[in-house]
Structure prediction request, 257 residues.
Amino acid sequence: MNHGSLFSAPITSRVALAAFLAGGLLLTTACNAVTGAGDLRLRDVDEEDEDNNNTTQGAGGAGAGGAGGAGGMATACVYPTAPAEGYGKEMGDIVSNVYKWDGYVEGTIDATESNPISIESYLDCDGSKGINALMIVESAEWCANCQQEASELNTNMANKWEAMGIRVLTLMVEKADTSPADLDTAFTWKSSFNLMSTAVAVDPPITFTPPGASSIGLPLIVVIDPRTMKIVHTQEGYSPSHPELEALAEQNAAASP
Prediction:
């Protein structure tokens, strides 16, 4: 079980990647049969299809899909302004509002119903949408630990997460053969695990890789506070429990009107 910062996993359960992701490199992976994490090789972004552009540059909108509300009138929230140092991807950072991925929202498992899913759609500044915590899970088809995480989502949602106002967005980065994930990958993952109550989208660039990271393990879990859009917890690797996620949801629920 891996808790805490992104680099808390032992070296054998990490995914190796170069620290110069900013230079336009994407990743391929080879699965470690013991841990479910893999060793990453580098691949030039030029090798990728233009269709794999899943993060929108410029002002982000709510998109056609996204997080479901709790009913009633939701407040028209204004996305948090970037601090002087800008938006970021590490603990305590506000997530940029430009992120948008193609995928499938909650409440449907239909290959014809793909939609853009914007990070901005999970903003719930006062709790009026009923979203108290957001968990993002970067996953790959080849990753055994990712499969384990996905297999438990329905139980977690049904037992308490949905009632607690927890939302989950899985971002698929690679197929079983380590090629970049596409919409078919997202649909196959959603349907295979019957993820009716959670969203699944496509993210070959691995959006939440921290700047300068030298390694990363999958699944990469990022917990975001929907009131502030700040990252409050990151974790690499599978864990059977998510106390930080649940604590955030309870805290926000208690503070909501």
